[in-house]
Amino acid sequence: MAKQKVQYEFPMHCLSEILYEYLASAEGLAEWFADEVVEKGDDFYFSWGGGPAEKATLIRYKPESFVRFRWEEDEGTKNFFEMTIVIDEITEDLSLNITDFSEPEDREENRLYWENLIENLQIKLGAA
C-alpha cells in the first residue's frame, strides 16, 4: 500500500532564523533529529545509535522558511518530509509545520515519533 501524506503543527517560541539553522544544517539536525548527521552537498547522512547511516537528499528549500528532504528509499516516488516555519500574520506566533508520508498502519507511530522529535527540538531551543 502507498504511503499517505500526514501533517502536523507545533507551536514554537523562538526566532525563525535560529529555528531554520536547526532544520537546514548538519550541526543543527544532529542536536535533535539524529545522533549524527553528515552533509555532503545536498545529501545528508543520518545515523542513530551507531547504526548505518540513512541518506536523505535536500530537494527544495527556502532560507528561513522551509526544507524538504527525500529519503533514499523514497527515490522515484513523490514522498518527502518537509519542515516549514510559519509565522501568523496577525499574532506573529511561530509554528513549525511538518509534512511527512507514512504507511496507514504506522500513522500513530509516525505522529508520536514527530512529537518526540519536536519536543527535543523545543528543549534545545528553549522554545517549549
TrEMBL record:
Entry superkingdom: Bacteria
InterPro entries in the cross-refs: START-like_dom_sf, START_2
Domain START-like: 3-127
Protein name: SRPBCC domain-containing protein
Native organism: Chryseobacterium lacus
Lineage: Bacteria, Pseudomonadati, Bacteroidota, Flavobacteriia, Flavobacteriales
